[in-house]
Amino acid sequence: MAGVSDRRDTAYATAILHEIADLLGQLAAEGRGGAIDLRAMPLGPEDRSRLEQVLAEGAVKASIDAGGPSEIFETVYPGVWWARHRNEAGDTVAEFIEVTDCPQFLRSQAEDIRDGCAGLRRLLDTSHPQ
Amino acid sequence: MDLLTFARGPGLFWAVTIFVIGVLWKLVGVVLLRAKPDLSVARKPSAWTGLRLILTRTWPRREFLQSTAYTEVLGYTFHIGFFVALAFYLPHILFFEDVFRGLIGVNFQGVFGVSWPYFSGGVIYFSGAVAFAALIALLIHRIASPVKRLISNFDDYFSWLVTIAPLATGMLAFSHVGAPYQTLIAVHLLSVELLLVWFPFGKLMHTFTVFLSRGTQGMQFERKGATL
Amino acid sequence: MPDSMIPQDARDVTLGEYLAARGVSRRAFLKFACSLASLMALPPSVGTAMAEAMAKARRPSVLWFPFQECTGCTESITRSHTPTIEAMIFDMISLDYHETLMAAAGHQSEAAREQAMKENAGKYLLLIDGSVATGLEGAYSCIGGQTNLSWLTEAAKGAAAIVAVGTCASYGGIPKANPNPTGARAVSDIIKDKPIVNIPGCPPIPVVLTGVLAHFLTFGTLPELDPLGRPKAFFGETIHDRCYRRPFYDQGRFAKTFDDEGARNGWCLYELGCKGPVTYNSCATVKWNGGTSFPIQSGHGCLGCSEPDFWDKGSFYRPLSVGQWGNAATLGGAAAVGVALGAAAAYAARRRQDKIAKGD
User: Are B203 and B155 in contact (CB under 8 A)?
Assistant: First the structure.
């Protein structure tokens, strides 16, 4: 990761990037990643722009509408995803960096699948009564 | 009642009241003492010019400098640092202005035309730290010097303690170190209250009496025709 | 059959099922749980665990008793313009008794209360807002002919935990202010044998209550509390420590009146009496009305409303460093006493001099 600044005003960004590197190595070797809560530390504007500069958008970008809009994109580093969650009012309620092969928010949830299956079956039964 | 409410309430009230009672008691008690009448002839028509001794004694005579320079310099360092930290820090100034307004009935700015100047917290902290260091150095000297140690009494040590405590607790409160801020600020206020209560009854009264004693001695010398 | 806010069978579904029936997908719920975990400074993995645990939980029975209060806490909790975290979690609990919100009234509502207490004995959450009047054996505040005090002691027996909502329930609040004519006390002054969490604030920030409820639903316990019984996740820092105007405080830039240049520039409000340095709450980070603003941002100093006895700590507009030193009269009196003592001391000294001179 060439060119990561050691300046004091991007210290938090540097720390986060190191943690991501560790998690990514773990994911590659053992299949076990992790998540970092970006709201857990006081990121300054320099930190944020440093992170956005290093973790630029990659190949995948998803927008989700669940309890308000959310945006998840894979960064230029495969396995490193950036998730921004907003509520219906548009306020940011959470922001994570997930190191994983597929973020949990992108996956269809088991219960939702079951409910959807039941719903589809109901639809087919009513439109094509046996 | 929690500690901070006590320190800002009855603690402060009684400390200030005892301070005022005590200082006036001691000063009036001294000033009204009977002075031995000087039956000799006055060498000068007016002895009032002798008051200049107050100024001339602010620095030792050349002959004594070698033995007193250490404590003189450290003493001034402490006094100036303490004064700056006390008089030019905004939270302190707000208190003094409130007392001023309560006693005179008008704002400080209304009387003097300018508002009371203040420095930023960092400058004040540095000033307090310098005063703190000077006090430590002075105590070390007092204990290390055999003469000073021999003649030092409870008053000397306790007055030192009640003076350094507000400096130490003030720095701790400023840096939010060691306890929740409420506790730190309450302890700082209580240390000031202890200083106020002890003040009239020990050597801290030199704050006022130094001017009285230098002044009277100056006038006596002047009357005798002695060199000031 | 007694009227109740929630139909009987709806209480038997899990939270997950209840939400699904209301069109809230598991994905949305997962997002909400992770946001709440983030707000409570819990690690992201806990958010996922919270979602799973909460989804499986039965909707707990919650009884909300209003004692000597102004209903501001209810207003705060239920005020939400759009479906937000607070509204969602509030939907999840089975609010079996709430005088302002429930449809029933009079004897029917009391019957609903008694039924809920019996059916959920040992498991319901008791939410109290308002202080408990103890003067005249509690007669100053009664509901349905019974004192708040007796309601509290009776209901506490079957409660799993008690949540004191607002400063009045947590510490006595405004009714307890000097001279406290009704003998107002905090819930924790009355009940000593149940877990109690205090959520002070006048009113409290809504998401604090929902965070505590979420914690209870997930872990079955109350979150970690500070020495005053407040959840550390929300009351661990002072307003001053997270205030956006803190740089002005450090630089020494203060507003001197409410409309001077400093006030217009958004400078620190210390001189105007802000109690931020000694007040623990989340107003500076979470803010109010969905993160819109908080008192200091709107130009008024913090009142310290989440601290005990905030009403009796002197003027809201007196800076923290300006204590009660007395007034001109008391200092004048002290000066007179001092002068008298000094004169007496000098007189006694002169008398002794005379005696010595006479050779006695």
Answer: yes
Distance between start and end Cα atoms, chain C: 103
- Determine contact, residues C27/A79, Cβ cutoff 8 Å: no
In this complex, the residue of A36, A98, A112 whose CB is nearest that of residue C27 is A112
Which residue in B100, B165, B181 sits closest to B132, CA to CA?
B165
Give me the interface pTM, i.e. the ipTM.
0.89
Which residues in chain C are contacts of B32 at CB distance < 8 A?
A: 342-343, 346-347
β-strands C184-185, C132-133: how paired?
Answer: antiparallel
Which amino acid is residue B9, in one-letter code?
G
Instruction: State whether C82 and A93 contact (CB < 8 Å).
Output: no
**Angle at Cα C299 formed by Cα C298 and Cα C301, nearest 5°?**
110
How many of the other CB atoms lie within 10 Å of CB of C53?
Answer: 17
The reply to whether C342 touches chain B by the CB within 8 Å rule is yes
Contact B20 C353 (CB under 8 A): no
Rounded Cα gap, residues A85 and A106, in angstroms: 12
What are the structure tokens assigned to C37, written together? Answer: 């975990």
| Angstrom distance (rounded) from CA B16 to CA B72 | 30
Q: Which residue has the tokens 């260091």?
A: B133
Give residue A8's pLDDT.
Answer: 60
Residue C308: list chain B partners with CB under 8 A. Answer: 2
Q: At C16, list the tokens.
A: 């997950």
Give which of C41, C292, C290 is closest to A68, Cα–Cα.
C290
C-alpha C187/C-alpha C350 separation (Å) is: 64
Tokens of B31: 């000033």
Closest partner residue to B13 (CB to CB) among C241, C313, C325 is C325
Name chain A contacts of C293, Cβ cutoff 8 Å.
none
Type of residue found at C340: A
Q: How far apart are CA B111 and CA C302, in angstroms?
A: 31
**What is d(CA B3, CA C309) in angstroms, rounded to the nearest whole number?**
13
Which H/E stretch holds residue A63? Answer: strand A57-65
CA distances in angstroms from C250 to A91, C244, C321, listed in the order given: 30, 12, 16
Look at C338 and B25 and tell me if their CB atoms are within 8 Å.
yes
**Does C259 reach chain B within 8 Å, measured CB to CB?**
no
Task: Give C103's DSSP letter.
Answer: S
- Tens-digit pLDDT string for chain B (228 aa): 789 999 999 999 999 999 999 999 999 999 999 888 889 899 988 889 999 999 999 999 999 999 999 999 999 999 999 999 999 999 999 999 999 999 999 988 888 888 899 998 899 999 999 999 999 999 999 999 999 999 999 999 999 999 999 999 999 999 989 898 999 999 999 999 999 999 999 999 999 999 999 999 999 999 999 988
Residue C8 predicted with pLDDT over 50? no
- Å between C276 CA and nearest CA of chain B: 11
**pTM over 0.90, yes/no:** no
Q: Which of C325, C338, C349 sits opposite B33 (nearest CB)?
A: C349
Residues 6+ apart with CB under 8 A from B151: none
